[in-house]
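Entry, Tuesday afternoon. Goal for today is a structural model of the target with guanosine-5'-triphosphate bound, before we commit to ordering more compound. Inputs were pasted exactly as handed over by J.K., no edits. I checked the ligand SMILES twice against the vendor sheet because last time a stereocentre got dropped in transcription.
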Amino acid sequence: MLTPASILITTVLLSLAMVLVLGSLLRAEMAGVREWFTSNLAVIGGLLLLGLRGLVPDFFSIVAANLVLALSTACYYAGCARFLGRPPHWLRLAAGIGALALALTIWLYIDDNIPLRVLATTTYTGIVCVAVAVLLLRHRPSTRRRYNYWFAAALALIFALCQVARGIHFIMLPLPSDPLIFHSTWNMALLIVGAVIMPAMTMVAVMMIHDAMLAAAEDAANHDHMTGALSRKRLETLAREQIANAVKAGRPLSLLIIDLDHFKHINDNHGHAGGDTVLREFVRMTRASLRDSDALGRMGGEEFAVLLPDTDTAGALRIAERLREQTKMQLVIGAFGECRYSISAGVASWRTGETFDRLSMRADRALYTAKSAGRNRVLPDDVQAVDQAMPATV
Ligand SMILES: Nc1nc2c(ncn2[C@@H]2O[C@H](COP(=O)(O)OP(=O)(O)OP(=O)(O)O)[C@@H](O)[C@H]2O)c(=O)[nH]1
């Protein structure tokens, strides 16, 4: 038969399963996981204390049990806040728990009133649940899928509604201090919903954790760890997408392959760390100089590629020449000392029917010519555009 005790045992088992799932994610050291883990531990602790009603003093099975359950809700909020990079507001949460402790003590020892005790706990939990929903909706990462966050917010609101309904239900009861009121059909229904929702919210938290892990893995695969430029793999994928767009829209697309000149000397003179600093500074400056729609990727070592959508050869040559001028002027300063450097670049514009490999091969060929011609210069692969090339005055 369904009794408060059977619901309590089921919730303890579900929360135990959630503790095991979150425990396995603790070593990922993701913000919020520790708080969600503690939240489920607190659910188990609070429910076990509730289950000891009659066996231990009322202080433990009523006051302490409800405070531990309130702590569980507070930890869930703090987990969401930390996960989203927001402040957990521990002081406000603690103040709420303090007020609840006072209310429970008054309505147990001064005026024994079950409905008011229930109303106090449901009010606290309801407020924190609404705060969870607001937090998730307002601070959801805009680059990630909405589904997990909306789902979690909806569950938090349902939980809050159930708490309000349970509080109102108890306030309206005719025999306020009879413990049998816990067995009423309404209370049982609201307890069942309450029992399912906390583990369900934890499952959604796990979905959010997996989503964040996936985002981190995608980011690592798509970016060069040292400079922050796109990885070669990501740039090539992007290039194929942009070629498809260029085909559809009939718009030009150009590619620059850039290589830092005499980079071996930079390493020899300033150490590997000095060379790394030069690479990072080159990427920082180049990104600042390009449009948002352009893409800068590291092809390997000191070689980079820039994809320029909606740009013909003349435009690409102008951009490459501007970059060459800027790098020539750039003084890189670091713990290693000071360093100046230059770049050479090859420019190729996409031709109808051409693959990215072929386009990149032509830009590479132009780069090779620029290097052979003395470095610190920009050259196009397109023979007709040679007139527009602007060899550097070294
Ligand atoms: N510091 C640092 N050096 C790197 C990195 N990747 C490659 N290199 C070094 O870059 C140097 C490239 O040397 P080379 O291929 O001879 O080219 P270069 O000296 O720039 O000469 P040119 O390209 O002909 O002007 C090598 O010494 C590599 O070890 C990196 O991530 N950091």
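The beta strands are 253-260, 295-300, 303-309, 331-334, 337-340, 343-349, 378-380.
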